[in-house]
Amino acid sequence: MTYIHDTISSLQHTSPAQTEFYQAVEDVLDSLAPILEDDKRYQQHAIIERLVEPERQIMFRVPWLDDRGQIQVNKGYRIEFNSALGPYKGGLRFHPSVNASIIKFLGFEQIFKNALTGLAIGGGKGGANFDPKGKSDQEIMRFCQSFMTELYRHIGPNTDVPAGDIGVGTREIGYLFGQYKRIVNRFDGVLTGKSMLWGGSEARKQATGFGCVYFAQNMLEDRDQSIKGKTCLVSGSGNVAIYTMEKLYELGAKPVACSDSNGTIYHSQGIDLDLIKDLKERRHERLKVYLETHTDAEYTPREDYPEDGHSIWRYQADLAFPCATQNELTERDAQCLLENGCSAIAEGANMPSTQAAVDLFVEAGVAYGPGKAANAGGVATSQLEMAQNAGMRHWSFAEVDQRLQEIMRHIYCTSRDTAARYGSERNLVLGANIAGFKRVADAMIEQGLV
Ligand SMILES: NC(=O)C1=CN([C@@H]2O[C@H](COP(=O)(O)OP(=O)(O)OC[C@H]3O[C@@H](n4cnc5c(N)ncnc54)[C@H](O)[C@@H]3O)[C@@H](O)[C@H]2O)C=CC1
Ligand SMILES: O=C(O)CCC(=O)C(=O)O
């Protein structure tokens, strides 16, 4: 299709070497042919050309002092991608791999994800190539303060509301908020994922993982199956992976494997989630330490992974939940999952499957929930946090969880029904992309040429 080729060629010229960004754009454009054919207004209003260019890109120096008194410098980003539906909304990622391509792919995905929630939130993302691993609490605080000393002027509760992502949890949000408040002298809802002591929402910590399992539940129910009794693989062992495993246990399933960037644990008895929480949320330990408590578990270090894929997807299981990072599930991994009888994949991470892996899932007709639909529970609950802050209210855990379940059902049904309407029954990739695109594109048309 020429519009895909033309768009990617143009991006290669204007935004060179941003391969993850091109991948995310291609994934969306690949789905759009039926709606572009159906409604010529999108081409007349140059919606695609405008969508792929962020409204604003902020890049800045983040100087900070380490514990030895040495000055360190990192690069910070905030990409304010699209505000047609509401204030820019999306997390901050602190990881050494962060660059413009990674932040732009995440920001682009966020536009459609946020649109799918049905809530009033635009798309944005940010972060820095800062590695929190091995840093002291004081170093993390100094880094966050320096990061916010530039970021504060670009954000606001009705302008741009960042949150966490990889490497940014409640501790980092606390330091970022403290510095924001000190500079602007206002206590407002400018960040989400805040501590429960000072304006956070119940269930935000759990929301992405819980939401991902609710999404899987919806997919399975439509196929007369249930989560109960299923064996599951959950990659990662951070915020999303932990609360995916927690909800799976609550619904009677058994996660048997999880991972971190150094290796994979397989434990046929079922992953000991209390131990994982202790290792990852409190002690900030490597996953390998799990073996000190459970000698019957199996650990595969990253160096022993096959060249064409990852260890975790080679185990037999009914359901798979990629919850670590982008492109962590390759074509070969997808083949292994399908050969081993895996019947549903719900993505807690952003773009965890390569395009070839996605194509295999869609062709095989298994239940496949792409990240922008399946992991939208986190950002949706962030919007619930914004609503509580604006109304000076605090809702109970049960109330937020109930709303989260309704939102995940809405996202699932909208994606499913849109796929059917455009002639690709059960293709949730196409359904999610078209439904997200339509809401944003229609809003852009109504708001004129901006
Ligand atoms: N935190 C949130 O609310 C949301 C997060 N996401 C996505 O979920 C994914 C995970 O994010 P969080 O859990 O928040 O981050 P986190 O920082 O809490 O945890 C990330 C986990 O992934 C592991 N990891 C990183 N690279 C890996 C690799 N190559 N192989 C295996 N494990 C690896 C890390 O060791 C860590 O356990 C990311 O793709 C993020 O963008 C998506 C929606 C919302
Ligand atoms: O809660 C938020 O605002 C952002 C969550 C996020 O970064 C994501 O959905 O990928």
TrEMBL record:
Catalysed reaction per UniProt? L-glutamate + NADP(+) + H2O = 2-oxoglutarate + NH4(+) + NADPH + H(+)
Residue span, Glutamate/phenylalanine/leucine/valine/L-tryptophan dehydrogenase C-terminal domain: 201-448
Question: PANTHER family per the record?
Answer: NADP-SPECIFIC GLUTAMATE DEHYDROGENASE 1-RELATED (PTHR43571)
Query: What do the Gene Ontology cellular component annotations say?
Result: cytosol
Q: Write out the GO MF terms.
A: glutamate dehydrogenase (NADP+) activity; nucleotide binding
Which PROSITE patterns does the entry mention?
A: GLFV_DEHYDROGENASE (PS00074)
Gene3D superfamilies associated with the record? Glutamate Dehydrogenase, chain A, domain 3, Leucine Dehydrogenase, chain A, domain 1, NAD(P)-binding Rossmann-like Domain
Quote the protein name from its UniProt record. Glutamate dehydrogenase
One Pfam family, please name it: ELFV_dehydrog_N
Subunit record text: Homohexamer.
- The UniProt annotation places substrate binding at K89, Q110, K113, G164, S382
Q: Which UniProt keywords apply?
A: NAD, Nucleotide-binding, Oxidoreductase
Q: Where is this site: Important for catalysis?
A: D165
- Which amino acids does the record list as binding NAD(+)? T208, N239
Which residues carry out catalysis? Answer: K125
GO BP annotations listed: glutamate biosynthetic process
Q: What does this protein do?
A: Catalyzes the reversible oxidative deamination of glutamate to alpha-ketoglutarate and ammonia.
The similarity comment for this entry is: Belongs to the Glu/Leu/Phe/Val dehydrogenases family.
